[in-house]
Design brief:
Length: 261
């Protein structure tokens, strides 16, 4: 691992055990790498084993510790197995990032297939519900922890032809706030992260670890007229901050990297 200055966040991540859904690529991969670099032991999950293996190899090549477990976030059995595996492998569970998501395509409501609508709700909303449900007993047993849900600005401004995605992300916001109220007595902080437009596969960027220099000419950056189109590593820095906060600290809040509109 590269030598780094030690701040409070980095000390708080040392030896923490973290589970990340959607950890094979994009934001999940970037956050897994950043958390591992700061000392966390990371269990990454996604549906693609090949992508998970690539993420784990990147972590271990930098001196970090990683485990993988393919899983479907919409399966209650898979989510229970995922959280239990983290405890079996590393002895405890401290931080959970519920990041897996789909955008559901772009269609008017009257043309939106039921399977697309259901997929958005199953993965973006029910998957987070099942992740929280499965993680809480293990976080409570550890004396507390953090849950971070990956939200979206679409939950607030609800663009046309994104009804399934927007509805699922709006539901996610309400779910996380309810969980924050319920779990505060258990020393479990629950917060939401809005990454804003980011260079991931959702925006057609297939490079595993894109940097700012890789996305200077990306069409999204030109089209948005000043909208902050950023590399995943930028979002990972905010995720590091949230993971390093005290268990009894800020909860029920939304942290956004969306540009002002």
């Amino acid at each position: 691992m590269s030598e780094r200055t030690t701040d409070t966040t980095e000390r708080n991540l040392a030896d923490q055990v973290a589970v990340i859904t959607g950890g094979g690529r994009g934001l999940g991969r970037a956050i897994a790498l950043a958390w591992a670099e700061r000392g966390a032991r990371v269990l990454c999950s996604a549906r693609s084993r090949a992508e998970l293996e690539d993420t784990a190899a990147a972590i271990t090549s930098r001196g970090g510790e990683a485990e993988i477990l393919p899983a479907d976030v919409a399966s209650e059995q898979d989510m229970q197995r995922l959280m239990a595996h983290a405890v079996e492998r590393f002895g405890r569970l401290d931080v959970v990032l519920l990041n897996a998501g789909v955008n559901g395509g772009r269609l008017p409501i009257e043309q939106l297939p039921m399977e697309d609508w259901r997929q958005c709700l199953d993965i973006n909303l029910t998957g987070v519900f099942l992740g929280i449900k499965a993680a809480v007993p293990h976080l409570r047993a550890a004396g507390g922890g953090k849950i971070i849900g990956m939200g979206s600005g679409s939950s607030l401004h609800s663009p046309a032809e994104h009804a399934g995605y927007s509805a699922s992300k709006a539901g996610l916001t309400a779910l996380l706030r309810s969980a924050a109220r319920e779990l505060r007595p258990d020393h479990i902080a629950v917060n939401e992260l809005h990454p804003g437009p980011t260079a991931t596969a959702m925006h057609g960027v297939t490079t595993s670890d894109p940097t700012e220099s890789d996305i200077v000419d990306h069409p999204r950056r030109r089209q948005e007229g000043g909208e902050w189109f950023k590399a995943p590593q930028v979002v990972a820095e905010l995720a590091c901050f949230l993971a390093g906060l005290p268990n009894d600290g800020v909860t029920g809040q939304l942290f956004s990297l969306n540009s002002l509109r």
